[in-house]
Amino acid sequence: MRHGRRLTTSFTLALALAVTLVGCTPEPEDPDPRPAADALATDLEDGTFDAAPLDAPDVADEQLASILGDLAAFPREVTATVVEPAEDDGDGEDAPEVRTVELTWSIDLGEGVDPLETTTSATLTLTDPDGDGEDPAAWTTVWSPTLVHPEATAESVVTVRRTQAARGDVNGRDGAPIVIDRPVFRVGIDKANLTEDRWQPAAEALAAALELDDQAGYVQRVLGAGAAAFPVALTIRQGDEGSYDTQALRAMEGVLLQEDTIPLAPTSTFARAILGGVGEATAEIVDASQGQVVAGDVVGTSGLQRTYDADLRGTPATQIVLTDPAGDVLLGGSDAVEGADLSTTLDVDLQIYAEQRLADVTSASAVVAIQPSTGAVLAAASGPGSSGLSTATVGQYAPGSTFKVATALALIRSGLTPDSPVECTPTVTVDGREFQNFPGYPETSVGTIPLREAIAQSCNTALIAQSASITSADVADAAASLGIGAALPEGEAWTFPYFSGTVPTDATGTTHAADLIGQGEVLASPLAMAGVAASVAAGRTVVPTLVEVAEPPVPVAPAVPLTTEEAQTLQELMFGVVRTGSSTFLQSVPGDPVGAKSGTAQFGTEDPPQTHAWMIAFQGDLAVAVLVEVGDYGTATAGPIIADVLTFAATGA
Where in the cell is it found (predicted)? Predict the structure, then answer.
């Protein structure tokens, strides 16, 4: 009996243990839905669909790019938030377990435009939740275009409609308008009004009538354009058609003169090499803009218009629209922000006159005018012989005897005064090379003469004879004190292209001797030489400014600053050039007395060599430099031009 009771007890204990073990076995937990939600957000962000548990990744890949349309290339960020279900969601025990995922889209539309924000949702479903299949439980979702936008369908496409902002004006001194919208004719072939067989002959005839440089290229552009296109051959300023007979052009087969306005200067040549041009963006400009410029945008293509294009063009108005056969949905957008005006220091009337004065000069040429008190560039004209180069600001030429102002400063610093005697001989020899004065040098100023007379009459030999008393470093320091070779701020771009000049610091022998009369290895631009005259007039080193910006870069001060006393001595020497020296003709210029220095620099291999003709001058608060690349003597070629410019500045006529 006791044995039987033991069996019964053992069975009872075993049964109880079994019941206990079964009751204590935990049910498998559902997997965390957050990794699946994050994977979905990542795939929507990068467009790869290689991680999210989607039912149709290939369809998702294709439809995502198609729906995003114009926004597909913009950077985007997608974040996921899992929404936990309520404690009692009302579902039956057999209903699949689901989670809602909120997807927050943020698409970066570029600088100055608010990001496009959109919220969509996805449903995660737990597959095989009972764990009775071969695969473990996992969260999956079904692809739908509504993951991109709540109202999107498979046929939806996002388009970005852009309207360019009004471009900023380029203004001159005291806000005078320079580059503003002006009326033009766009001349081209209107293909829609021609049969296909007439496209080529019409294009050939128009290209010939306009004397285009690349006539074949224009014909090919016409043929390659769409059937309803209007390929423009030339844009003509209204009221300034020049040699183009607009009435005859209108009568040509297929030719259309379309009226329009584009940003233009007051004349077709006005500071063109400096201000640059405006036109449709090239492929290179579009590629470099990082989405800020698209094909068809009007942008600055060269010069200041290109340098300051980001400010001038402003921010376009945008409309972001979800287009669909059922109707369009406006997703967002922004208003246009007008371009900012660019202020320059150019005096419109003086610039126009300077260009007119150079119109008949066949070689490269320039007129530069600076206001000494401020350094403002009032005119920077390059003649037609410059062939589009800004000779005025970036030309590199030997300055000839105009550089003697810098040499005189070096000699003054070495101890000479305007009355110090110097030897002006017919010739002087340095290291076997013979130097002489210009032909026609006045014999009355040969011999022992004061330094002031050597400068007034431009005696080469008197200055070269002093080459042993000053080093090339002394000359370079003196030139820098007058702005030649002025150092620009390191790590910053100057506000406009400018060649300030170069003066060697280690020249010896004949090179050093030639440098003293502005030949040798000395180079300067007309703007730099106008700066010399301006520095003398202002009594300090003048660095020219052309663009008025909020925070202009600060020029590096010269190693040896120009003093007031030195400037007064140089003023006296330059006044002497006009009173008793080689430029007495400038006495007839109305207004304040004129101080000046002429210059002639030989160049080339011809026999006799060709010569650059130079002249610099100051009068009151105006400094001017004139260069003619191929001329006679400075006084003969550049002299009459500088006299006319000074007279116009003084009288307006």
Answer: Membrane
